[in-house]
Amino acid sequence: MFLNFITWNVDPVLVHLGPLAIRWYGLLWAIGIYATLLIVQRLFKHEGLPEAWLDKLFMYTVIGTIIGARLGHCLFYEWDYFSQHPLEILYIWHGGLASHGGAIGILVAMYFFNKNVSKKGYIWIFDRLVIGVAICGFSIRLGNLMNSEIYGSVTTMPWGFIFVRNRETLPMHPTQIYEMLYCLITFAVTWWLYWKKEAYRRTGLIFGVFLLGIFGSRFALEFIKNTQEAFEANMFLNMGQILSIPFIVWGIWLIVRSLKTPLALN
Q1: Fewest C-beta atoms under 10 Å: which of 17, 23, 59, 264?
Q2: What is the pLDDT of residues 38-85, one digit of tens each?
Q3: Neighbouring residues of 48: CB distance < 8 A, sequence distance ≥ 6
Q4: Which residues touch 159 (CB under 8 Å, ≥6 apart)?
Q5: What is the pTM of this model?
């Protein structure tokens, strides 16, 4: 018997301005990216890095994230459809962004940022950037909650959500909130490592902790999530878990390597 639950029926549109609709999801994406910028700006200032780098980093990150997230969704989750309607890949306003695709997009973008701008090493920039990215992840998952999407299976926990807009009648795990929490925890840990332990002097340590915190938690959480696409129904590990494994392995490797490597001078 369900003892308690939360009825969730939030309108995903924040406000209508004539024919234009401002959606919570898009607004929270923008807020997350801006928060990332502010956090990295503080880190750059602390290390005395050129201010011009920040503007270029912002441009590379936004472009890489959006293109990667869109292509990731189309390729990993709905390729059968988009392979037949390739032009609709550009219709980003219709929705469909994948976090793993966004991660890959950032990886590619930072390769070019390092090559063309910072020239301090590929992993070096991630040891700073991902602290802000963790907060961006929190904001995006809040956007998923406002959209009543990507939630979990039926639960008897008192914090279960009935997602009215999806015509659910039973409480479901609000996995968007669980993901918001592990993003916040990852942010707190990486922030603490940076400021209290000067972990940025051990190249790859902060980035490795971030990968393990975000993608390790994501892998575990997928076991109570509903499948996003029909093809995942009979898979032992779903697409989100399969895509998380390389990031988890990479994170472990970075942490081990960083702890065995002498401290960097800057």
Answers
A1: 17
A2: 999 999 999 999 989 999 998 998 899 888 888 888 887 777 888 887
A3: none
A4: 6, 174, 177
A5: 0.88
